[in-house]
Write a structure and sequence with these properties.
- It is built from 15 helices and 13 strands.
- The protein is of the alpha/beta class and 357 residues long.
- Helix 4 links the parallel strand 4 and strand 5.
- Helix 3 packs parallel to helix 4 and helix 10 crosses helix 11.
- The longest helix is centred in the middle third of the chain and has 18 residues.
- The two termini are 19 Å apart.
Length: 357
């Protein structure tokens, strides 16, 4: 394939990249693989060295410097807001304004805007919903990662070409499940659980370890948020000494590292969406814990076990679900079907890039 030359299209990739969250960096790696190598890539990143190592063909700009990113917008042919749920105000209203500002300035600079593999919301404020409705028609094309987001966007506007399909990370190459290893826990902090809720999960995990004799591998997907969670949970009385002795801890640095761990797992208990997706791509048995509808929806697509943290869970309910899924690998035919449907994100993007002068 041709490499990027002087007259190549200048593509700016903007997302939550280089923030030491493996899910977002997985989205970036999948996105880059779908972009022709003839394009010149500039990527917004917090840890610019990390992103440069992930995508050697790219240059980076500090994502936390709005001025620097706006300068990059002005010199780009296309802005791609790549993956995740960037148009939401649950993280902060300021975060939403950041991405909306980029879209508006892009149009002022005659830079095309593609929303790729996006989720819409949550938008908790009336002003947030109004702003998004006003700004969406300024985009060039949109691919949504779930049907609910697509339907909401259709209610708000119909002038922009839009498609929807499963999360783009489903397109990443998978692995053959080996099994025989640990139970892998990919949990994250969540407001859905207080100490009592965490106690239920820890008690069930302790009983699972006791009954099956497995080791527990705590695998952090977000280097800051998830890595500190086990330390907090160990202050609970339910975190027994046998559970502590059976536990090991690590942080994911790359997709390949995660797939290696998942391919050997006897069971993966994920909370994070992309932990669930990568575990399924590795063929691993899964029993998800849904803190957000996107996790429940992904589990439903592959008919994986899923417990909703919005409900009052019991120890017996969790333990039964986990024991039932132990050593029961994913269905590869379902994965192949989802991967085929997920190609819509790449197809839409490639069509739009062809139209760039």
């Amino acid at each position: 394939m041709a490499t990027a030359g002087k007259g190549a299209r200048r593509v700016l990739l903007c997302g939550y990249y280089g923030e030491h969250n493996l899910g977002d960096d997985a989205l970036l790696q999948v996105l880059v693989c779908q972009i022709p190598t003839s394009c010149r890539l500039l990527i917004t990143a917090y840890d610019q060295r990390l992103v440069s190592e992930l995508v050697p063909r790219s240059k980076t700009v500090q994502r936390r410097s709005l001025r620097s990113v706006l300068k990059a917008v002005a010199t780009s042919d296309v802005l791609i807001l790549g993956g995740g749920s960037l148009l939401q105000d649950s993280t902060s209203f300021r975060s939403l304004l950041y991405y909306l500002t980029l879209i508006v300035i892009s149009r002022v600079c005659n830079t095309k805007v593609l929303l790729w593999g996006q989720g819409l919301g949550p938008l908790n404020r009336v002003v947030s919903r109004w702003l998004v409705q006003m700004v969406l028609p300024l985009t060039t094309a949109i691919s949504w990662r779930d049907l609910v987001s697509y339907q909401q966007a259709c209610r708000w506007q119909r002038s922009v070409p839009m498609v929807w399909g499963p999360d783009p990370v489903w397109c990443h190459p998978g692995r053959q499940w080996i099994g025989g290893g640990d139970v892998v826990v990919c949990w994250r902090p969540t407001k859905r659980l207080d100490d009592q809720g965490w106690t239920v999960l820890i008690t069930a995990l302790s009983r699972l370890q006791s009954r099956s004799g497995v080791n527990i591998h705590w695998l952090a997907f977000h280097a800051e948020q998830d890595r500190l969670l086990p330390e907090k949970l160990q202050t609970l009385d339910a975190f027994t000494k046998p559970l502590k002795d059976a536990s090991t801890y690590s942080t994911c640095q790359t997709i390949d590292q995660a797939l290696d761990v998942f391919s050997k797992a006897r069971l993966v208990i994920p909370m994070r969406l992309h932990a669930l997706i990568l575990a399924q791509l590795a063929g691993a048995p899964c029993s998800a814990l849904s803190y957000d509808p996107k996790v429940k929806a992904a589990a439903s697509m592959v008919t994986a076990s899923c417990l909703d943290l919005g409900n009052q869970l019991t120890v017996d309910q969790c333990l039964l679900a986990w024991l039932e899924q132990l050593d029961r690998p994913a269905d590869p035919s379902k994965i192949l079907n989802i991967q085929s449907r997920s190609r819509v994100h790449a197809d839409l993007m490639l069509d739009e890039l062809k139209c760039v002068d």
